[in-house]
Amino acid sequence: MNLLVVGMSHRTAGMSLLEQVALIGSEAADVLAELVAQPYVDEAVILSTCNRVEVYAAVSAFHGGLADIGGVLAKRAGRPVHEIAAQFYVHYEVDAVRHAFRVASGLDSMVVGEAQILGQLRDAYGVAGDQGTAGRLLHELMQQALRVGKRVHAETGIDRAGQSVVSAALAYGQGATGPVEHRPALVIGAGAMGALSLATLKRSGAGPLFVTNRSHTRAERLAELHGATAVPFAELSSLLERVDVVVSATASPEPVLDAALVAGAGRPLLVLDLALPRDVAPGVGDLPGVTLVDIELLSESLSTTADAEERAAEDIVVAEVETFLTWLRGADVAPTVAALRARADEVVGAELRRLAQRCPEMTDEHRAEVAHSIHRIVQRLLHQPTVRVRQLAAAPGGEAYAQALRELFDLQIPTSEINPAAAGEVHP
């Protein structure tokens, strides 16, 4: 089984395509089921955020898995796969592990170092676990990726000053409209991004703060946590007349703010659209007095210059990738060791049965003593080779030793239990 990542992000695809592929609410469960129903995909996890949609998969073949995943994503976009294939990024085996660890560490984020991706990855893994689409390989990858992400944030200053998509968008917007301190602000949406938006606005000195959501109960809970006022969603129009800043981060498949609604506010507004699909309809940014910052604009403005903290984080990722590969190689040799011990048990069992037929005069006590002695001899003979092959398998190229054992003892192991990439199979 092999690791494959296929996805698209703000770096490779336009925002309109990302909106078409993005998962909303319970859609992830259906797409996961569709993925693992494909011929070459055995496990799948989908990560969908405001700037990326990517599939982590355990596949039985590279090209077949790529075609299966690409087909599902293209179907979701409503376009032929050849039209969007150039906007995919593809990572295989060791590159897939490295990508997962970089994503969890915030190194691949629009705002480098943002910590929200850890929660998003944890949620994506949780959904896959609930749907039964994460097996042994992806369970291990996701658990280790989350651990690596936590380690990077704990050991480096990559997340200094609590930088996030929200803080970056707010900083960009304030460059055009001035500080938000003491200015009334509204957050639309009571999910994780809505909570982060309220916390960021509060830290920036904005106020009074308001929050609205289609579920008023959720809005009330969030408002209580951040010292804000929850307002029924039906009062959104009148609320826009009372605020200077609007942050919209819902999971709505349709825009929640259109030109007519915003124009009716009759006042200058700084609008931050942090949703995917977008919450703000086309034309809002063209209204007089409205400054609109969305994910597309933000991705164009952010610098990608590496600094010392990023380099330190990359060093951690490199070391952790090698640790994961060591586990993977050890996992690959385990079926060979198990098959060798099973073969030894078969041989011992056959010889003991032959002995019982040739020496019927032996007592049960004698037979038990002979069986015990033979088993001990065989186990002692196998102990050192099996320990050593596990050690050798942990090194690069170590799968060759397990392959030698299979050939020497004619061990028949299902190919699904052996990692073909580790065995030397090369894919472009």
UniProtKB/TrEMBL annotation:
<dbReference type="InterPro" id="IPR036291">
    <property type="entry name" value="NAD(P)-bd_dom_sf"/>
</dbReference>
<dbReference type="GO" id="GO:0008883">
    <property type="term" value="F:glutamyl-tRNA reductase activity"/>
</dbReference>
<dbReference type="InterPro" id="IPR018214">
    <property type="entry name" value="GluRdtase_CS"/>
</dbReference>
<dbReference type="Pfam" id="PF05201">
    <property type="entry name" value="GlutR_N"/>
</dbReference>
<comment type="similarity">
    <text>Belongs to the glutamyl-tRNA reductase family.</text>
</comment>
<dbReference type="InterPro" id="IPR015895">
    <property type="entry name" value="4pyrrol_synth_GluRdtase_N"/>
</dbReference>
<dbReference type="InterPro" id="IPR015896">
    <property type="entry name" value="4pyrrol_synth_GluRdtase_dimer"/>
</dbReference>
<feature type="binding site">
    <location>
        <position position="109"/>
    </location>
    <ligand>
        <name>substrate</name>
    </ligand>
</feature>
<feature type="domain" description="Glutamyl-tRNA reductase N-terminal">
    <location>
        <begin position="6"/>
        <end position="156"/>
    </location>
</feature>
<dbReference type="InterPro" id="IPR006151">
    <property type="entry name" value="Shikm_DH/Glu-tRNA_Rdtase"/>
</dbReference>
<dbReference type="Pfam" id="PF01488">
    <property type="entry name" value="Shikimate_DH"/>
</dbReference>
<feature type="binding site">
    <location>
        <begin position="49"/>
        <end position="52"/>
    </location>
    <ligand>
        <name>substrate</name>
    </ligand>
</feature>
<keyword id="KW-0521">NADP</keyword>
<keyword id="KW-0627">Porphyrin biosynthesis</keyword>
<comment type="subunit">
    <text>Homodimer.</text>
</comment>
<comment type="pathway">
    <text>Porphyrin-containing compound metabolism; protoporphyrin-IX biosynthesis; 5-aminolevulinate from L-glutamyl-tRNA(Glu): step 1/2.</text>
</comment>
<feature type="binding site">
    <location>
        <begin position="189"/>
        <end position="194"/>
    </location>
    <ligand>
        <name>NADP(+)</name>
    </ligand>
</feature>
<comment type="function">
    <text>Catalyzes the NADPH-dependent reduction of glutamyl-tRNA(Glu) to glutamate 1-semialdehyde (GSA).</text>
</comment>
<feature type="domain" description="Quinate/shikimate 5-dehydrogenase/glutamyl-tRNA reductase">
    <location>
        <begin position="180"/>
        <end position="299"/>
    </location>
</feature>
<feature type="site" description="Important for activity">
    <location>
        <position position="99"/>
    </location>
</feature>
<dbReference type="InterPro" id="IPR000343">
    <property type="entry name" value="4pyrrol_synth_GluRdtase"/>
</dbReference>
<keyword id="KW-0560">Oxidoreductase</keyword>
<dbReference type="InterPro" id="IPR036343">
    <property type="entry name" value="GluRdtase_N_sf"/>
</dbReference>
<feature type="binding site">
    <location>
        <position position="120"/>
    </location>
    <ligand>
        <name>substrate</name>
    </ligand>
</feature>
<feature type="active site" description="Nucleophile">
    <location>
        <position position="50"/>
    </location>
</feature>
<dbReference type="Pfam" id="PF00745">
    <property type="entry name" value="GlutR_dimer"/>
</dbReference>
<feature type="domain" description="Tetrapyrrole biosynthesis glutamyl-tRNA reductase dimerisation">
    <location>
        <begin position="312"/>
        <end position="411"/>
    </location>
</feature>
<feature type="binding site">
    <location>
        <begin position="114"/>
        <end position="116"/>
    </location>
    <ligand>
        <name>substrate</name>
    </ligand>
</feature>
<dbReference type="InterPro" id="IPR036453">
    <property type="entry name" value="GluRdtase_dimer_dom_sf"/>
</dbReference>
<protein>
    <recommendedName>
        <fullName>Glutamyl-tRNA reductase</fullName>
        <ecNumber>1.2.1.70</ecNumber>
    </recommendedName>
</protein>
